[in-house]
Specification:
Helices cover 23% and strands 36% of the residues. It has helices at residues 25-35, 45-50, 60-75; strands at 15-23, 81-88, 101-112, 117-126, 129-140. The protein has a 5-stranded antiparallel β-sheet.
Length: 142
């Protein structure tokens, strides 16, 4: 695969299409199985509350993975991501109901760099609170 977006066609301030990602308890169990991270704070409400959390929370790496989808969907090639990092600021709390939680992610080109790369800054929120800070990706464009 190769990036579908041309470096020449992108300017600082270009907004990526925002996306929302639903998260349910079933999603967390599936992610735990795929990742091998069975920490009970991600599936056991009693345990999560006993350690001071408001409820079960999504895996940080799951939240991070959902956020970068805004970039990979925009560029058309997951291999175009050269760097990616975040700071976890708040957990995504996932209630045990039919709705679960929603992670809302938007992004914008913050800088045009050398070698056909750009830096994309992402904003990820859940329940009106920022859940990732300093969320940035460097992406190689066509």
């Amino acid at each position: 695969m190769t990036a579908k977006i041309s470096h020449a066609d992108v300017e600082v301030g270009t907004e990526l299409p925002a996306q929302t990602f639903p998260v349910t308890r079933a999603t967390l169990v599936q992610y735990a199985g795929a990742s091998g991270d069975f920490n009970p704070i991600h599936w056991n409400e009693r345990f999560a509350k006993d350690v001071g959390l408001p409820d079960v929370i999504a895996h940080g790496m799951f939240t991070m993975a959902e956020a970068i989808r805004v970039v990979t969907d925009w560029v058309g090639d997951p291999g175009a991501v050269v760097e990616y990092g975040v700071r976890f600021t708040r957990p995504v709390v996932v209630p045990d109901d039919d709705k679960g939680a929603v992670i809302e992610v938007s992004g914008k080109v913050a800088a045009k760099l050398d070698h056909n790369t750009v830096r994309v800054d992402l904003t990820a929120t859940s329940a009106g609170q920022k859940v990732l800070g300093a969320s940035r990706a460097v992406v190689r464009l066509a």
